[in-house]
Specification:
alpha/beta, 292 residues, 12 helices, Rossmann fold, 19% strand, disordered N terminus, binds S-adenosylmethionine
Length: 292
């Protein structure tokens, strides 16, 4: 009986991939309020360069940091954005670097369709592909980036292997994302609650452990693995979350529009992200760079 009940529960529960697809098919539009440039990530604050009250300056600085690390300036290059959202980072890249082409992949068909319209540039295309099995040929790309997307797969070894396979030798993979520092079982009460909330609302049940990811990057074959915890750069944009959520609810209320379940989950997820700042012993936000 117990087995039957468990089976029923397993069948009813969404897989991580279904959760990710549903979240981004239904809640991507909500990000218009987060970023007019449709960046679906947190920002990178640099005193006197980015304005802490203007979110998009920080969000675009995150894009800038990753492109600088890829070292593609003044080069004819073709890179891939693994988990590209609706193309905010890709649009930033092709507008800034005239010799750059970017392919993006996403699990969401909505993001593929709307993102290609939004970017509207011959040098950029979004495809509905899984970053763990992109179907691209070996050694195709001169760089790969993943902003807040590998968190969904836990930055798994198969994800890292696939990134390694499609990269040209000597080109780089740059990841900007949240990671755990501690195994879930060893976290304190608040961290466990936050982890559970992030899993439920943002499908982050596989959130990667930074020590394991470093080890696996090296096992896969990457060299020069450099890891930097940049939570203090990201924190000023995370502090925008409560204001953005109030604005979102008020907008829906004035327009007399109902709140979708995915939008509610997305907002709750943002609150849990805010709470991670109280659990810095167990979570961090890192930029990881690795060379093939
Ligand atoms: C928070 S959004 C970040 C989007 C984008 N990198 C940005 O910063 O604007 C996460 C993205 O990861 C993508 N994603 C998650 N798991 C994926 C997978 N297995 N394969 C491809 N894309 C995936 C989602 O479809 C979504 O586009």
């Amino acid at each position: 009986m117990e087995t039957v009940l468990k089976l029923r529960k397993d069948i009813k529960e969404k897989t991580n991939e279904e959760g990710v697809m549903q979240l981004y098919n239904e809640a991507t539009e909500d990000y218009q309020l987060w970023s007019k440039d449709l960046n679906m990530h947190f920002g990178y604050y640099i005193p006197f360069k980015t304005n802490p009250f203007k979110r998009d300056t920080m969000l675009n600085e995150m894009n800038n940091q990753l492109f600088s690390m890829l070292e593609i300036k003044n080069k004819k290059a073709h890179i891939i954005d693994l988990g590209c959202g609706i193309g905010g980072t890709m649009r930033y890249g092709v507008n800034k670097f005239p010799d750059l082409s970017i392919t993006g992949c996403t699990l969401s068909t909505f993001q593929e369709k709307e993102g290609n319209k939004f970017i509207n540039n011959k040098r950029a295309i979004i495809k509905n592909r899984d970053y763990r099995n992109t179907q691209f040929s070996e050694n195709k790309f001169d760089g790969a980036m993943a902003i807040e997307s590998f968190c969904h797969s836990g930055c798994s070894k198969e994800t890292l292997e696939e990134a390694y396979r499609i990269l040209n030798p000597n080109s780089k993979l740059i990841i900007a994302d949240a990671f755990c520092k501690t195994e879930e079982g060893k976290m304190n009460f608040l961290s466990k609650k936050v982890h559970k909330g992030l899993s439920k609302c943002w499908s982050l049940e596989r959130l990667g452990n930074i020590k394991r990811v470093k080890k696996e990057l090296e096992e896969v074959g990457f060299k020069e693995v450099v890891i930097k915890n940049i939570w203090y750069r990201v924190a000023p944009s995370v502090l925008h979350v409560p204001f953005m959520i109030c604005g979102f609810i008020l907008k829906k209320w004035f327009k007399n529009e109902p709140l979708k379940k995915e939008s509610i989950d997305n907002m709750k997820g943002s609150y849990y992200a805010l709470l991670t700042s109280l659990c810095l012993q167990d979570f961090g936000y890192y930029i990881v760079s690795a060379k093939k």
